[in-house]
Amino acid sequence: MTTLLPPRPPAASDSPGKGSPVRPGRARLNRPGVAWTLPATIFFLLFAAVPLVAVVVLSFMTWTGLGEPKFVGMENWQTLAGDSVMLKSLWLSLLFIVLGVVTQTPVSILLGVWAAGPQRNRAVLSAIFFLPLLLSSAAISVLWRALLDPNFGVPAQFRWLFGDGNLFGHQSTAIGVIIFVSMWQFTPFHTLIYQGAAKSVPPVLYQAAEVDGAGRIRQFFSITLPQLRNSMITSVILMVVGGLTTFETVLILTNGGPGTDTTITAFYMFEEAFRRYNFGMGSAIALVLVVVATAISLIMVKLSGYDKMRSTMEGV
Prior knowledge:
Elements: H1 38-58, E1 61-62, E2 70-71, H2 75-81, H3 84-115, H4 122-129, H5 137-147, H6 154-157, H7 159-162, H8 171-199, H9 203-211, H10 216-227, H11 229-244, H12 248-253, H13 265-275, H14 279-304
Antiparallel strand pairs: 1-2
């Protein structure tokens, strides 16, 4: 038999006035105050916003680093618009990005999925493979420059394979060397991204696929790759931004040569500003690089749906 209890009398805290609960529509969020943003805001202004404004102003001036900058209006931009080396550097930068994505992405995915598995000695092999992440780009470039030296390096010992051995003397081989060295250095970083994503795939999906008779290859293309979509977008965007800002690898390996065959935009900016002491032109090139990098990133974000990414994990 069910006993009906009398309604509970309203408590003092339930009555309107002081101490009454706030309505859901008027609930206040306990957010940090504006003062918490001051350190990050000051850091951004000093090291990002102010230098960018200075570069914009300097792009309309001529300055050798000595004396006072002189205002020249649109002269730098007009010279840049008709500069064939600048146009070539942009195409080379885009080529480096495409080749970097095409070579690094498949290898990174396969290694990341493998590193996420339970294989024997996986941890030891992964640690050895990730060693390039501990080295600087300059050190890696010096290492490979010595290894591929046309007089004393590996190509000189195997001329039947490398021809004259001068891999840095031809555009195609010089570009191939830069792409290979970049791949050797940065593939472990992107492998870490895919390894973490692969570990997050719910095991129940693979168990269900095994029950349905799907093999490892079918599971990889039907389960693993779709689950890695968001990580793949993130990785490719990082490759694009990194490819546009690559500098020390080109400087040490090829110095932009032969001729201007590997002079990408970032290296061309360095040449104009710090070798020819034309800081106005260098600033204009830097702004072009910023605009191109921002435009490519925004296009990728829009087309890939990166800004609307949601977890693809089961139950999330």
